Amino acid sequence: MVLDPESSPQAAYGAHLRSVREVRGWSQEELATRTAYSSQHISAVETARKPPTLPLSVELDAVFGLRGTEDSFERRWQQTRPGPLLEGFPEYVANEGEAVEIRLYEIGIIPGLLQTPGYARCLADSNVRRGTITPERADRRVRFLAQRQAALVRDRPPMMLIVLDESCIRRRVGGPEVMAEQLDRLLDVAEQANTVVQIAPYDMGEHRSLDLPLNLLTLPDMSVLAYAESQIRGYMERNTDSVLTLLKIYHLLQAEALPHAASVAMIREARKAYP
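-> structure tokens emitted (275 positions)
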């Protein structure tokens, strides 16, 4: 089958996969032996009969040694999406679904994994009003968040260690109903056996060791990955020394933040502001 790479982003991805594979001198069967995918699946992606996925892209980047390069399959996968994600975030999400422990620190908003649909929709719609995304991309963003949350519902859910700046529970997003539902959701999460929630109160002052949000993942092999974002891009950190430094800073943040019980009490107090 002759594939026109200009016909669609999926076709461009498939043509890129075929080109990289053939440069290595590998058949589809040989590539299949190096991945978790069948030769039939690889053939279907190369001919655009099946859409590429993020897990496939991450695995291909590992096999071909293209992770983080301009020719990476993760970058090509982003181009097939109607709403491109920040650089580095797709790789983070692929690992998030496999993590045995997730550490989060957030400022200003409730982390995505804990957001209710109503809260997430308000944030997405505000971006539409500002003209930074289209309504279609807003819809996709909300659906994508639901998929991330669903991936954590499994027989052995990951341990969740969550530190929230006090602004997360004080900043009103949407109306009173949206905030009431969101704070109720946060209280429900705090009651789960695999979750510890801590609030970093305003009066921590200079003792707050992190000034930007941070995500840390512990994978089944006990390696740790770090992910952080600026306003325009995300960055995935795998370097052991850098990750260990961030992990130490996170531990210092946990030590200064309110204990779980006191944090839950503060969330309950904030919830009283909404009927």
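The mean pLDDT is 89.
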